[in-house]
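Fold this sequence, please.
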Amino acid sequence: MIADVPDEGGQPLGSTGEVRRFLSEVLPDLDLSDPTWGILERSTYSIEFSIGKAEPCTSIMLHVRGLDDAIYPIQTLCTGYGWQALDFSDGELICFDSDPAKGLRAWREYRDRVAPGGPAKGVSLTTPDGGRVFFDSFPNQSTQPKNHKKPWWQFWKGGT
């Protein structure tokens, strides 16, 4: 549980340079052109790695979208470097021995229940209880823009 994580955050993962090297060793196709924000795009999922600038690096925030196989690179990193992954959807540390993708599946089920048909990236909806849900989920083919020349996360850059 999140209560099991020490207040001081535990041991640092390393310097930001070391963390980028660790990530690149395990995930050679990880785009680290922005040294504070890595992007891993695979056919069935995407994971963004918010590394930040703080030294030493004490944590990485992952933004995971897609199917259950998105858990495998996370598992490889955690087992390879002795790291732990916290699933913020349930506040539990991910147990890689027992259905590690259950939180990701639960999120997709929730998303599909409140927004049938799977909204496109960047959509927000108001839920019946008045809360807001912001979607930035892995799109299905019908929501993916055709022939886009720049990645969707670079919306602020000029051109198309």
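The chain has a mean pLDDT of 76. The CA atoms of residues 71 and 101 lie 6 Å apart.
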